[in-house]
Amino acid sequence: MCWVKLNVFVLEQSLGDLSKKFGNISSNKDIIKLVIHYLQEERLNIQNNVDMEGLMLDFMCHYREERWDTGKYFDFVNELFRAAENESYSEECEPPPCPTTPVPTKEYSTGIVD
């Protein structure tokens, strides 16, 4: 459940950025807005039991920005939804130590850095 707590807000932001790439009358934009609404509800449920700001600060050193293909991205969204179902938000998250060396990035021929 710790994984869900740490990713729900970041995923919400990412989907918000994605929705901006569609026109105002796009059905894709409407669907993404529904998913964002669901994530906001999940985040509110979590925040009732957890200090989210403090938790996210403790884990900030473990985040890294990546670009995934569409299938992998929405597999991640589905995985988060499945993990969030029927879970208790009361358990605490203990952060592992921050990495002492930066996480390497990979550059592919497309020029996209993952």
From TrEMBL:
It comes from the Eukaryota. Keywords: Cell adhesion, Cell membrane, Cell projection, Cytoplasm, Cytoskeleton, Disulfide bond, Glycoprotein, Growth factor, Membrane, Secreted, Signal, Transmembrane, Transmembrane helix. It is a single-pass type I membrane protein. Residues 88-114 are annotated as: Disordered. It is found in: Cell membrane; Cell projection, Filopodium; Cell projection, Lamellipodium; Cytoplasm, Cytoskeleton. The keyword Lipid metabolism does not apply. InterPro entries: 4_helix_cytokine-like_core (IPR009079), SCF (IPR003452). PANTHER family: KIT LIGAND (PTHR11574:SF0). This is Kit ligand. It comes from Ameca splendens.
